[in-house]
Amino acid sequence: MTEIPGAGGGPAPFDCGVRGLCPRCVAPTLFRGFVAFADRCSACDLDFTQFNVGDGPAAFLTTGIGTIITILAIWLELSVGPPWWVHVALWLPLTVAGVVGSLRIAKGVLLALEFRNAAREGRIDTRR
């Protein structure tokens, strides 16, 4: 019987991102740094370099969090009218922390979903 990747006892994709779990063996070996993937799992030898998460999470998070921060900054400006340095001191660290903090989770979730769904680069079926 062929094993379906990630089927059955695999971790939830969200757990892979939050806790850095390998999607195959559930060992906490997904990341070598804060947002950098390890090359392979030291427990089950799954090659993480075969997955293509790309820059999608960074672009998506920057756009989404940037929109929220912009709305909050406009609201603060119109309701309180603080000096410019308050905006810099408040919104710059919140934006960086929000994007970088959520980037690890997003990258881990996407890698786990790619593993679970056996997703690969575009394949064309030439059997016609």
Report a brief summary of the structure.
The chain is mainly α and 128 residues long. Helix content is 50%, strand content 0%.
For the residues shown, what is the average pLDDT? Answer: 85
Report helical residue fraction: 40-55%
Parts with pLDDT < 50 across at least 5 consecutive residues = 1-6
Shape: elongated
Q: How many E-type strands?
A: 0
State the order of secondary-structure elements, H for helix, E for strand. HHH
| Main sheet makeup | none
Label the structural class: mainly alpha
End-to-end CA span: 28 Å
Q: Taking Cα atoms only, what radius of gyration do you get, to the nearest Å?
A: 19 Å
**Number of helical elements:** 3
Strand content: under 5%
Secondary structure layout plus pairing:
Elements: H1 13-19, H2 56-79, H3 84-116
Helix pairs in contact: 1-3, 2-3
Structure description:
- The protein is an all-alpha fold and 128 residues long.
- Helix content is 50%, strand content 0%.
- It has 3 helices and no strands.
- Helix 1 packs across helix 3 (84-116) and helix 2 (56-79) packs antiparallel against helix 3.
- 16% of the residues are buried.
- Residues 1-6 have low confidence and may be disordered.
Give short descriptive properties of this protein:
128 residues; mainly alpha; elongated; disordered N terminus
